[in-house]
Request: fold
Amino acid sequence: MSQHPLTVEQFLMAHPPASLAGAGSLTALLSAIGLVGKTLARDLRIAGLLNMLGTTGDTNVQGESVKKLDQIANETFIEVLQRDGVAGALASEEMEKPVFVTSPGRPAPYMVLFDPLDGSSNTDVNMPLGSIFSIIAHQNPDEPLGDDDLLKKGTHQLAAGYFLFGPSTMLVFTTGKGVYGFTLDPNVGEYQLSHSGMKIPSRGKVYAVNEGNYQKWPEGTKRYVDSLKTVDKAAGRPYSSRYSGCLVADVHRLLLGGGIYLYPGEVSKPEGKLRLLYEANPMAMVVEQAGGRASTGMTRILDIEPKKLHQRVPLIIGSANDVQDAESYIQGKAVFA
Ligand code: AFP
Reply:
């Protein structure tokens, strides 16, 4: 590791992401998002001292009770991203409707969809947290932006990534040319390149799923998870169970060591829990760019045509061979173990 690894801005200068003609650089937008992460990392580090734990008493569009840190994270994203004229629309897990940003001259064509704080059930117990972001473009910037402009397939993402707030804070993202991880050095106040060209192993030894929902799952899903627990030395089983309550933390572990994360559909709720546009799509772009796979068990996540802003989808994501195994069980093609 070099003494002075590249910062995010230096990396993006050296590898400029494709920017929309005449539309401010994607680098400026990614740099603004980077500032959001630094601010949240600072707040999270001392949240317990700043009365930032607990709930606000409100319920969000997902029907969940809003944590104070959810609100703080959401406000930080909105405040930072709406001021630099780099984004024309902002859509969040915490807001029913998107915010449209009008800046002088024609509207900024980039749109950012984000989960400001992923793993909210971990906020008050000092467990890992994340933020997830997806950047898409407005094809005809001379037309004012509308709600439907945000309903784009995952294949339309220009960039996607996440912050992991763990023992260290990391920014991991892709602009469609591989996956890069940067670690925040709070002393320097810079993200520095620590994980270049991340590649997920084709198969792992870890699975992440909330087994408390087991009885709610369709037969195929049950059989797949059962198969991971059978003793089969040749197949590297049983796998170890590792579930943190935070999608970002669980997928980050898989990116480095391989394996699979599942938030499957349930018999009574086939759409599952996770949100397509600001959880599944961005994580799917990152994992696919690292050589992995992401599907609903039936369909590739990035090919799903969104219908609603807060649409939910089942998510099976991780090492390509592991996700293919899960798909064959879910599609009833696998021979039950
Ligand atoms: P919240 O951010 O609303 O806590 O949801 C976290 C999450 O979307 C994902 O990060 C977790 O893996 C999953 O939901 C946890 O859901 P369960 O608590 O139902 O297992």
